[in-house]
Amino acid sequence: MKSTNLTSNVIKQKRQLETTFYGNFSKRSNMDNDNDFFGLPSKVKHMFKKHKKITQLYDWQIECLNLEAVKNRTNLIYALPTSGGKTLVAEILMLKELLISERNVLFILPYVALVQEKVQSLCPFGLNLEFNVEEYVGGKGKHPPIQRKRKSTLYVCTLERGAGLVDCMLADNGQLGGRSVGMIVVDELHLLGEQKRGALLETTLTKVLYSNYNIQIIGMSATIGNMNEIGNFLNAYVYTKDFRPVQLKESVKINQDIFVINKDVDGSMKIKLDRKLNFDIYTSDMKRLDPSGIGLLVREILPNGSCLVFCPTKSSCQSIAKIIYKSIGKEEACVQLKEKEELYKALKEEGDGKVCPLLTRSILFGVAYHNSGLTNAERKLLEEAFLGGIIKCICCTSTLAAGVNLPAQRVIITSPFVGRDFMKQSTYRQMVGRAGRAGLTESGDSVLLCQENDKEKIKILLENGVEHIDSCLGTEENIVYSMILSSISTGCTSSQEQLVNLMKCTLFIKQAEKYNDECTVASDLIESCLDKLRSLNAFNKPVERTLKLTPIANAAVAANLDILEAQKLYTELIEASSALLLINKLHLLYLAVPYTECITLERQYVLEIMTNLKGDQQALANRLGINELCISQFISYGKIKNISEIIWNKFIMSLILNDLWNKESIWTVSKTYNLSRGTIHSFLSRTASHASSILRFTEALQDKKLDHFPMLFQNIIPKLNIGVLGYSSDLESLMSLPSVRFGRATQLYKAGYKTLNDVAKANKKKLCNDISHLSIKVAREMIASAKLMLLSKAEALEELAESLRADLNQSISKDKENILWF
Ligand SMILES: Nc1ncnc2c1ncn2[C@@H]1O[C@H](COP(=O)(O)OP(=O)(O)OP(=O)(O)O)[C@@H](O)[C@H]1O
Asked: Is there a contact between 474 and 522 (Cβ–Cβ < 8 Å)?
């Protein structure tokens, strides 16, 4: 009876939502019978026009979508220069899978910011075309996913969370949330060549290839030197095109001379003097401040253009932004004043009442810096301002080129070095690829600033082909252990022979075999890894030759931890549970700090903190064995000898979390620990991710001694996820929206949009008026996200109610049968 009531309530709630959002449900169902857009309803075409301003596909996009390989669901990898329009092809393929094949899709992206951007931009599509969009970053996203059988779901995830989702899928016969997965899309496939993350991506894809669940893999990338080899690894059709929608004029500046670079028909480089940079408008002071003329190059594209300035280090972004805003004429400081003020207000709200003094001054001139010292929320506001033309010039590091989609009219590369290393061809290509805005400008240009003595290296940089991708798996043994354990835990393999076959599917073995036909690397490697894993007690006694994992090894897989971390965690939790300090959250926060946390604080700050511990902090220090001896060892040797360094580091990092939890402003915390606010925010995100691993570990382990932990961690994870610890939970639901961080949530709350429902029902124009620095596009996406989230929630409840009812009916009819029988 109860379950029927729940069902009818949920159905009522969902109908109400649907009537509010769509007008009339039956009308919506009849939409678009004319399937003329690659088999998709023509409504999709209109949506691309409305939301992405795309009216026509490029020839290559049409050619690629019509490939036999695509029609036959063969795996596909395709490579084009940056901004070639690769994402659109992937989006159309994903929509086909979600709407026509009605299967779930996993979309793996390399950076958190890219995942959030995608979720935000795909929500209107999910809402109108009726599929779910779920975000998996940090600690966000249920594991295993919520059951959603009625509509297909697009899981948008980072590489790390994608690896976890693939394991869930393999453990559930190729399904996620009760539906089959039909496609996995990987953006920036060249990451395969990166240490750690590349190896993780390689093992994730290898398991999919080996498992044979008929899942189509789509990979996209800027050009890769050995596409065919990567195609061979992924059993994929390879498609490449050298297409750029806007012309790119590349140049190099040495002293005052600017040389244009042209490629001859035979592929050789022609470098020709184009012009001299004119310093005449600079005063002698300005010449001294900006001897290389970066400011002059920026001035050339003003007032209508936009410019990305790539700097070699994080700190140089700030100093170069300062030079540029000082060199820009006063006229720039007089335009778009209202918009700039709104941006300032939004930054202030995000920054807990303060804005960095340099940004305060530079945004007046339309200039900003963008690096990991800023919080994600501040960076997002600056990106939106750049796309909206309020900020005309952003000084950033090369990570921005890979992590954010920001096109500009001009790209200036201030040095051919990234940190201390000479730039790689792929990095250079990714940076210059940002020049030119498709649909907005007809061409874009790039200027690389270099010294006379870099000439030879520059020539090689410009002439050489793109780099090959080499597997990093050989040097990442922890990732090989995890692949072995997860493939056994999910049922993909169960014997040594099967593991060898799995290993043979990796890029690492395929590349090793290239040079050696009789290669035994796979069997040797599996043998030595199994020996090591046996010595770590990862296996129960085998029954015949079947490998079986211990509960801790199984829980490690569920939590995406490697076996050593899982064992460390188990011991730590057992020790903690014997005397857990629950006077406040400090002890729990201590447990949530990842073991591999790599932030090191300066010595003088550590001393200041450790010699002034307060009562609760001292209690935990005592509990962990941190005493005066440790401090004196730290003073004398800079190292601790009587306790593990991990405990010492985790303790200090937990103090940061505790200060934030106790409502200390991020500016004060940043000063106390001498860490940038951006660094603190990324630490929070890693902690959120580790806390959700602990939750999954303890849930999967089902060990009575640890059964209080899931509830305790569930309590702190939501706040860690949103990156704001010490504030009221009223903002939590607003901050679950992809585009909403603390400042925007506060503005929404103050303006009367207190719940997701308020945002879902908002009028986009009114929302823009009520909230500073909010574009119509972002407002529209925000409203769509709120609607989609509420509908998905209502539908999940509905499904739960249905399954409860079915369960109940079954047991009632069984009872009846039994009564009859007796
Ligand atoms: N057919 C098209 N017509 C007009 N604009 C397009 C078209 N296809 C894509 N674009 C636009 O071009 C820009 C770059 O596209 P996209 O991000 O897909 O490129 P990409 O090849 O994935 O680049 P990256 O290598 O940076 O990921 C986007 O703003 C996108 O909306």
From this structure: no
